[in-house]
Amino acid sequence: MGEPGTAQFAAVVVTHDPEPVVLAAVQAVAEGHHGKIVVVDNASRDTTNLDRIERDLPGVEVIRLDSNTGFCAANNLGIRRAGRPEYVLLVNPDAVV
């Protein structure tokens, strides 16, 4: 947990065959967020946008799964990889926050 009076956030984005909007969603989170960001990919066939995230946002952890584990399991994995923040934001891949 964070120090008293400070909020520590992590953001988790789960995706499968992401459209280009996922890059915008992750960029928006990264611009206003100073905590850990984890993108969990559920076995996408087209990884172009994941490659862009890794290239353009080096502080974002991208986890590429070999099989589609489903939305809930992928979120749980992302939460575990986020460490122990005070708050976790579960962000849809087409959301801009």
Structure explained in plain terms:
- The model has no long low-confidence stretch (mean pLDDT 89).
- The chain contains 3 helices and 4 strands.
- α1 packs parallel to α2.
- Strands 3-2-1-4 form a 4-stranded parallel sheet, with helices on both faces.
- It starts with 8 loop residues before the first strand and ends in a 6-residue tail after the last strand.
- The longest helix is centred in the N-terminal third of the chain and has 11 residues, at 21-31.
- It has helices at residues 21-31, 48-56, 71-81; strands spanning 9-15, 36-41, 61-64, 87-91.
- Kindly provide the radius of gyration, computed on alpha-carbon positions and rounded to a whole number of angstroms: 13 Å
Q: Number of helix segments?
A: 3
Quick check: average pLDDT? Answer: 89
The rough form would be described as globular
Helix content: 25-40%
Could you list the spans in which at least 5 consecutive residues all have pLDDT below 50?
none
Order of helices and strands: EHEHEHE
Through-space gap between termini? 24 Å
Count the E strands.
4
Structural class comes to alpha/beta
What is the makeup of the main sheet?
A: 4 strands, parallel
Strand content: 15-25%
With strands numbered from the N-terminus, the spatial order across the biggest sheet is: 3-2-1-4
